[in-house]
């Protein structure tokens, strides 16, 4: 079973880093002390709803994105797609035509 506080903290940290924000800058922008943000990111404490709302606004993400824990790697996606289309020529044609239309 997933430890929600730790997964949530890890996701917040991941998003913060993707936005090129330091803990110090993010803490300043949302009105928290750096140790408090650190405790959230390490999963020691869960953020309040108000803090999540501030994080969402400052980092320009939807609040639900903080709870999207099970992202699939590109390698895993490719492997699963290969398995699905390997023996299904109809699905292969659909995927091919879809990708062709995107280009």
Quick rundown:
With 103 residues, this protein is an all-alpha fold.
Notes on the structure:
The chain has about 100 residues and is mainly α. It has two domains: about 5-65, lambda repressor-like DNA-binding domains (434 Repressor (Amino-terminal Domain), Orthogonal Bundle), CATH 1.10.260.40; about 70-103, no CATH class. The protein has six helices and no strands. The protein has helices at about 5-20, 25-30, 35-40, 50-60, 75-85, 90-100. The radius of gyration is 19 Å and the shape is elongated. The N and C termini lie far apart (about 40 Å).
Secondary structure: helix percent:
55-70%
Q: What is the CATH H-level superfamily of the largest domain?
A: lambda repressor-like DNA-binding domains
- Rounded to the nearest angstrom, the distance between the terminal CA atoms is 41 Å
User: Order of SSEs, N→C?
Assistant: HHHHHH
Mean pLDDT across the residues is 92
The share of residues in extended strands comes to under 5%
Shape annotation: elongated
Question: Which CATH class of the largest domain applies here?
Answer: Mainly Alpha
Structural class based on helices, strands and sheet pairing:
mainly alpha
Instruction: Give the low-confidence spans.
Output: none
Give the domain tally. Answer: 2
> Cα-atom Rg, whole angstroms?
19 Å
CATH domain fold name of the largest domain: 434 Repressor (Amino-terminal Domain)
Largest sheet: none
Give the name of the CATH architecture of the largest domain: Orthogonal Bundle
Oligomer: single chain
**Total number of helices:** 6
Query: What's the total count of β strands?
Result: 0
């Amino acid at each position: 079973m997933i430890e929600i506080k730790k997964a949530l903290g890890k996701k917040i940290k991941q998003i913060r880093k993707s936005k090129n924000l330091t803990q110090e800058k993010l803490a300043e922008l949302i009105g928290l002390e750096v140790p408090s943000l650190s405790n959230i990111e390490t999963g020691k404490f869960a953020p309040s709803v108000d803090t999540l709302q501030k994080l969402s606004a400052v980092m320009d993400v939807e609040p639900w994105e903080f709870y999207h824990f099970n992202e699939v790697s590109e390698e895993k996606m490719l492997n699963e797609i290969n398995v699905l289309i390997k023996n299904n020529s109809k699905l292969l044609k659909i995927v091919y035509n879809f990708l062709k239309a995107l280009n």
